[in-house]
Amino acid sequence: xxxxxxxxxxxxxxxxxxxxxxxxxxxxxxxxxxxxxxxxxxxxxxxxxxxxxxxxxxxxxxxxxxxxxx
Length: 70
Hints:
The protein is α+β, with helices and mostly antiparallel strands. The chain contains two helices and four strands, in the order βαββαβ.
């Protein structure tokens, strides 16, 4: 049986840097140096997951997702 891990991802092609994710979970998300796309810790601490889920749901472009990797 192969185990998978979930990783947080911001799609840079969909992100328009509204920065709602940064406001919701500043310990996980930030804007890049040019302030034109959000970046994230791809493996945030479990304690941050409620805020991460809120950021995923609050993204106006639905650019944030949790992806499974083997």
